[in-house]
Amino acid sequence: MNLRNLAIVLLFSSTLSGCFSQRASNVVRSGNPVFEGWYADPEAVVFREKYYIYPTYSAPYEKQVFLDAFSSKDLVNWEKHSRIVDTASIRWAKKAVWAPSITEKDGRYYLFFGANDIQNDQEHGGIGVAVSDNPEGPFKDHLGKPLIDKFHNGAQPIDQFVFKDKDGQYYLIYGGWRHCNIARLNSDFTGFLPFSDGTVFKEITPDKYVEGPFMFIRNGKYYFMWSEGGWTGPDYSVAYAIADSPLGPFKRAGKILQQNSTVATGAGHHSVIHHSAKDRWYMVYHRRPLGQTDRNHRVTCIDEMKFKGDSILPVKITFEGVEKDKL
Ligand code: FUB
Predict the structure, then answer these.
(1) Is residue 20 in a domain?
(2) Catalytic residues
(3) 24: Cβ–Cβ under 8 A, 6 or more apart, which residues?
(4) pLDDT tens digit string along 32-61?
(5) d(Cα 278, Cα 280) in Å, to the nearest integer?
(6) Model-level pTM?
(7) Could you read off the pLDDT of 129-150 as tens digits, one per residue?
(8) Which of 61, 98, 225, 300 for mutating ligand 1's site (highest number of atoms within 8 Å of CB)?
(9) Assigned domain for 6 exists
(10) Which CATH number belongs to the domain containing residue 102 in this structure?
(11) What 3-state class would DSSP assign to 18?
């Protein structure tokens, strides 16, 4: 185990007589960040009894030409899987390979990503999809071209999240530039199925939305989460809404992840994992270490996420991270 990740928690307990005694208990925790390197936009998932994190390699756009992944059996010890996909195999992607989102379908793994940071419909790029038989790659281009290469409803085609609904329908929820769309994926992820009113891209943008959408279901309700503020600055943060349908409407319930002046700034672009057997929830996100201003100095962290009734409580960001939690 990496010594950096060993946080020794000293528990002080008082005796009945009022005297203090010191009881040392070794609690192994992940530490934050959970692995070394500048990595942002982490998507955490569980595949084959292992936790995986798929982050953006945080660097100048021209150097963002590959994705690494990380796996762990316990949230504490992480193994790096280098270059699970790169622009040599995704020929249309030239730079800014961002914000992976992955799902398993029929034994294959589909990795959605943004590339090229297109600024208008004349530029080439957008959201692509790569496929592999192994969550650790290597991934190959599924289409040989982007899946979404145009702006719809004002949404820049970046920051995709692939969501599987209760009925088995897969959706792509995505969008930068303060607009968020949802679209129904077809069965082989080569395109989209229109909604009953004939539209393909439905806008579901909540108040203050900027980018980085994420969705999960709990107790039958749809929790929609997103990033607010600017990712290059300290105010980047995460808020959420709850609805009865993946299409919303989503009324902003409040902020649940943000900077802490004693821990880190720019905490945002997150994902959530649920250890269902223990009903533990984890927020996996990036943040900027205190005193750092380089926009790319973003590191991947995990802290526990708790609920009160249906509401999500504000997440306490820590240096210690989370306790060892085997699947
Ligand atoms: O990492 C590149 C971009 O930064 C992402 O697409 C945004 O969400 C922001 O985190």
Answers:
(1) no
(2) 41, 211
(3) 8, 10, 11
(4) 999 999 999 999 999 999 999 999 999 999
(5) 5
(6) 0.92
(7) 999 999 999 999 999 999 999 9
(8) 98
(9) no
(10) 2.115.10.20
(11) coil
